[in-house]
Recover the amino acids of this structure.
């Protein structure tokens, strides 16, 4: 393909970043390009373990149902492979004991599952799958210096070593610390509009050996109700371990030392997580991570966005991790990328002229839903936004009624899970049958 994006047989796509999102994108791109190269600046580990370039990988990462469906589409059988190697398939209602908004959610067979494994194990498994694709290559220790430009379009990358790698399409999946905004500005393509919503979240996570004994849950979640600031999660992962993540916001962050970790767990709204881990054997020290806030880079609004470039996952939109959307929204971005490319294919010919802006606008529709889910609750805090949008007051009241109803109403609990797992848009919670029950609950609660 030449620099002006004419419709010829596409040859090469580059993916920046061997993250979960980047690896799924590589599999999607392999359907459209003769060659796909994943460039990762880190030294990739030989075993499924934490790596420096993904500091948040020590913490709980949930593969939501929508993400599971996407990954299974590009890597058939991979979820069974994860389970066979020790990962766990967990029903979000039947297998999960979940304290949310002041009460325990209803328990029932929901059919909405999440896959639980360490982030390092999932990433390692997907990387092996990509490396087995006949037209895909993963290169580590390949740090990007800048983009190459030809006829006003991105035509590849230059590495820090000086090596130039040309491509018909460059996909940035390098994460929240993406340098694409700076690179585009330095090349004369303008400033990328940004939306931010600060949350000041701190994490501490460690692995424990699963203690003997019977429990009525596989995963345990304790979620705060504003103004409470503490959250805790236990999930089962490979190696017969629990991965335990404690989260605090607004400066109330969990410490890494043994005593402080347990004390923080003791301070959760209910004692269940503390009681589960107080006598369990810790297998790792606690790892810490800070998350400053929700970040949205609006590439769909950049009038000068060049051809030859697509930005996905956390590189485009990074959401508060307590809502567990990260891997799933990145996976969905890869599927949207695949869909947009398929629309432009005619036989062996693929037109990429004008593709970047078209894709970013399509992706933005999905990102809007994720942003709404992640930010609505945070508008409760006046420190987040002194003058939040007027609609948030009703939205927060309505969601509070949904959560309270879900303590006993299975249909309400199931509807919420569908939205949480990105299977349905947030507006589905306003469907008349559910809305009637929600409003009736709200009126009854107010009367009493």
């Amino acid at each position: 393909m030449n620099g002006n994006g004419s419709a010829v047989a596409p040859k090469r796509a580059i993916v920046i970043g061997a993250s979960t999102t980047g690896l799924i994108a590589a599999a999607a791109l392999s359907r459209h390009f003769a060659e796909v190269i994943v460039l990762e600046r880190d030294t990739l580990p030989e075993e499924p373990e934490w790596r420096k370039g993904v500091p948040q990988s020590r913490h709980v990462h949930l593969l939501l149902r929508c993400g599971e469906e996407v990954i299974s589409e590009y890597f058939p059988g991979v979820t069974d492979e994860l389970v066979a190697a020790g990962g766990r398939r967990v029903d979000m209602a039947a297998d999960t004991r979940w304290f949310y908004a002041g009460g325990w959610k209803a328990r029932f067979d929901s059919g909405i599952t999440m896959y639980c494994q360490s982030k390092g194990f999932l990433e390692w498994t997907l990387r092996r799958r990509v490396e087995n694709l006949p037209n895909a290559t993963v290169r580590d220790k390949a740090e990007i210096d800048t983009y190459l430009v030809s006829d006003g379009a991105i035509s590849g990358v230059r590495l820090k070593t000086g090596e130039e790698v040309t491509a018909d399409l460059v996909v940035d999946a390098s994460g929240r610390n993406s340098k694409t905004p700076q690179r585009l500005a330095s090349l004369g393509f303008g400033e990328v509009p940004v939306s931010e919503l600060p949350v000041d979240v701190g994490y501490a996570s460690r692995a424990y050996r699963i203690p003997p004994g019977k429990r009525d849950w596989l995963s345990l979640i304790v979620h705060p109700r504003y103004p409470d600031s503490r959250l805790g999660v236990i999930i089962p992962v490979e190696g017969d371990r629990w991965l335990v993540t404690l989260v605090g916001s607004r400066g109330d962050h969990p410490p890494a030392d043994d005593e402080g970790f347990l004390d923080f767990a003791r301070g959760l709204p209910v004692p269940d997580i503390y009681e589960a881990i107080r006598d369990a054997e810790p297998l790792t020290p606690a790892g810490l991570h800070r998350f400053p806030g929700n970040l949205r880079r609006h590439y769909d609004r950049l009038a000068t966005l060049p051809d030859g470039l697509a930005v996905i996952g956390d590189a485009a939109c990074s959401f508060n991790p307590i809502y567990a959307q990260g891997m799933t929204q990145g996976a969905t971005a890869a599927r949207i990328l695949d869909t947009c490319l398929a629309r432009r294919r005619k036989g062996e010919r693929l037109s990429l002229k004008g593709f970047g802006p078209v894709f970013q606008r399509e992706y933005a529709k999905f990102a809007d839903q994720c942003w709404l889910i992640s930010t609505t609750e945070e508008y409760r805090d006046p420190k987040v936004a002194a003058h939040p949008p007027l609609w948030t007051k009703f939205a927060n009241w309505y969601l509070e009624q949904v959560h309270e109803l879900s303590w006993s109403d299975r249909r309400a609990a199931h509807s919420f899970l569908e939205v949480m797992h990105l299977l349905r848009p947030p507006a589905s919670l306003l469907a008349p049958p559910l809305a009637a029950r929600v409003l009736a609950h709200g009126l009854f609660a107010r009367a009493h």
Q: What stands out?
A: The longest strand covers residues 194-209. Residues 1-6 have pLDDT under 50 and may be disordered. Residues 219 and 235 are 5 Å apart (CA to CA). The first helix runs from residue 20 to 29.
